[in-house]
Amino acid sequence: MTGTARVVCIGVATLDAIVRVDRLPGPDERVPGRDGRLAGGGVAATAAVTLARLGVPVAFVGRVGDDEAGRWIRAGLAAEGVDVAGLRPAPGRSPLSVVLVDASGARSLAPYPGEAGAIELSAADLERCAAAHWVHVDHAGLATVGALRAAGITGRVSLDGGVPIPGLTLAGIDLYAPTEAAVLARYPGRSLRDGLEAALREGPALVVATRGAAGTVAVERGAPGEPRHHAAPGATIQLGVDGSTLGAGDVFHGALLAALVDERPVDEALAFANTVAALSCRALDGRSAIPTRAELEDRRVAV
User: Fold this and answer.
1) Is the pLDDT of residue 182 over 90?
2) Is 0.85 surpassed by the pTM of this model?
3) pLDDT of residue 290
4) Which site in 12, 14, 50, 241 is 20 to 30 Å from 93, CA atoms measured?
5) What share of residues in the chain are helix, strand, coil (percent, to 5)?
């Protein structure tokens, strides 16, 4: 994919080792795997792949180790059409996640962050971010937002809040997208609706909470004291024996940004992102079943 990136994703890119089991093993127990594969993963990286599949020029900024896994991660992103000039190797091992998927399609993860260290933005990275419509960060990329603002980059920043972030503040964030559980944990004793409004008051213009199969809810900044609430039901598909929910939240965020880049209204953007995320669950890994824009438009799949 050539040209200026419309979205720059900053954060984690991993190699995932995924095994399907009938049930999770206990201590010192051996449980046979029913299926298994290696695939690319990572919160911001999977969002970047989603954007590329949907035809949005996208760049990724992050760190991997200078090992075989790092080369594999980079090649996988590049093959999807993601600009990987900002994905730089560092001495040591790359991020790796071990994922067990049970018979229900739910997953348990054991992520290893690797040894590549913190993400530091180069002058070229800052130029890409300044030219983009959105910069999307995950829990690892969040630390770069200060550097963006210090460099005078005032463009819109999206935060995937699915992974807990200790001491999180929402200053400088335009779109905050946590899970429902993360909202309720951040604002204990409040309803989801009240929690969304509390997050909105911390600075973002749009807060979106994902609820798995139940869909998404959102609150958008409107006139003072009059936030606009939105909701979109989850898209229903049959997972079958090959499916899992791995990476679905990451895919949702990439698809949501693709819809916002297209300037779709929030309600329409939520429904679009729900559909893309649901379709991604047709595969065991979090990437191979992400639909392309052509697949969505010709409706050769059940949407």
Assistant:
1) yes
2) yes
3) 96
4) 50
5) 30, 30, 40
